[in-house]
Write a structure and sequence with these properties.
The chain is of the alpha/beta class. It is built from 19 helices and 8 strands. The structure holds Double cubane cluster.
């Protein structure tokens, strides 16, 4: 195995804390992922990616920077990857899913802010995330109030913070704002990279991004089968790697895995026995290494068959139309595509519950676990109406609100088991 210490040092990481973090992650990965039974062979690629997530992938990014490419880090699926790739930039996700260094985060943020935001600050202040340290530009966005205000605190800590102003309503004015903001972001990408976005470069970027989304949709489709050919944990991991990996290699690896899974479905093979209780997760995104709830659900004997989440279908389900003949037409198509994302920061947000119902049917699910992070107002507030509407439609719902600690793991386990029994009894 290569020694990446000089590279981590050059990036300014705190080597001691970073080593400690990698060691905890390595153990968790072993316990949660590598201990699963009958995993598809194709997961070996993703195991490798995870084993090198701070190593080889960071080396590739550092090499790309040396070749003059810009690295753009982001925290939200509203940041259009197409415009980053169109200037040959590298796009990386920065959301964090571990309760690391929360004490330092709480020194600059309120204690009662969502763990996703706190974690991003814990990683930044603890100097343990090579992705944020390697980013030439960090892109924030006006989504929830927590993130919006936290970016003001983050600004002096990073090289270049750029904030996209997102609409909060799905109106014509909202769509107009989104397009104007994407045009402003395009200019930012051009200025930072010294490259001009052309019809060809944008079409190529759209094709690369669409191919990645198509591959994850293909994977999602295969999860309709009973028995499930892949665990929810492994599928979540792939959706998490979606934000870090080289897009072309990622697409090829997901498609290779899907070829294998098609064989499994044909042969009636799965990772859980046929007729295992099938649940859908809906709610806040689960960033690496936030695996707590899926681990509990699948250890309880149910299988997760889909995620209505930004690390899941909300982030990947729509494609961008590439038929435009001018840059403006293509930006219009990019706007059209992202404007469909039904994040709970929009008001009202009726299409989200429609998507949950649609996914429930498509994946032959039997129940929905609504997952909110503590202090996430958009999703915790929306949880009530979503639950009421799903229950009205005869869909059993379990509403969970949790954080990144393990303190409530026992309580969640009890509630998930009771939910599974409720589904099985009906
Ligand atoms: S499009 S879900 S990625 S904003 S969990 S920080 S909402 S308080 S992450 Fe998100 Fe974009 Fe929406 Fe998706 Fe705030 Fe809630 Fe925390 Fe959140």
């Amino acid at each position: 195995m290569s020694d990446y210490t000089p590279m981590w040092s050059d990036l300014g990481l705190d080597l001691k804390s970073h080593d400690a973090l990698l060691s905890v992650l390595g153990e968790a990965y072993q316990d949660i992922f590598l201990s699963q039974r009958d995993r598809p062979e194709g997961m070996k690629y993703f195991d490798f990616v995870m084993s090198e997530v701070h190593g080889l992938r960071i080396k590739e990014i550092v090499d790309a920077k040396a070749q003059g490419r810009i690295v753009v880090g982001s925290y939200c699926v509203f940041v259009p990857e197409e415009l980053i790739l169109a200037v040959d930039g590298v796009s990386v996700g920065l959301c964090a899913g571990a309760d690391f260094n929360f004490e330092a985060a709480e020194a600059v943020l309120p204690r009662n802010i969502c763990p996703l935001i706190k974690s991003a600050f814990g990683f930044k202040l603890g100097k343990v995330c090579p992705y944020v340290e390697a980013s030439d530009i960090v892109v924030g966005e006006n989504t929830c109030d927590g993130k919006k205000k936290a970016y003001e605190v983050l600004a002096p800590m990073v090289k270049d913070l750029y904030v996209i102003d997102l609409p909060q309503m799905k109106s014509d004015a909202g769509r107009g704002l989104l397009k104007a903001e994407y045009l402003r972001f395009m200019k930012k990408m051009e200025d930072a990279s010294g490259k001009t976005i052309t019809v060809d470069s944008l079409k190529n970027a759209i094709e690369t991004t669409n191919a990645k989304r198509r591959a994850t949709r293909r994977l999602a489709d295969l999860r309709k089968a009973d028995p499930a050919p892949i665990s929810g944990l492994d599928a979540l991991l792939i959706n998490q790697v979606f934000f870090y990996d080289d897009p072309v290699r990622f697409t090829a690896s997901v498609n290779a895995l899907c070829d294998e899974l098609e064989g499994r479905v044909k042969d009636g093979k799965g990772v859980f026995p046929k007729k295992t209780t099938r649940v859908l997760i809906s709610g806040c995104p689960m960033a690496v290494p936030n695996w707590k709830v899926p681990m509990i659900v699948e250890a309880s004997g149910a299988v997760i068959v889909g995620e209505e989440s930004c690390v899941g279908e909300r982030g990947t389900q729509w494609l961008t139309d590439d038929k435009g003949e001018t840059v403006d037409q293509l930006i219009e198509a990019v706007t059209e595509r992202y404007f469909k994302i039904d994040c709970a920061v929009f008001t009202p947000n009726p299409s989200r519950v429609d998507h949950v119902k649609d996914m429930f049917k498509r994946y032959n699910a039997q129940g929905v676990i609504h997952y909110s992070l503590q202090f996430c107002h958009p999703y915790t507030v929306e949880a009530g109406p979503v639950e009421a509407e799903l229950e009205k439609a005869g869909i059993p719902v379990l509403r969970l609100e949790t954080d990144y600690s393990q303190e409530d793991a026992g309580q969640i386990k009890t509630r998930v088991e009771a939910f599974r029994e409720r589904i099985e009894a009906s």
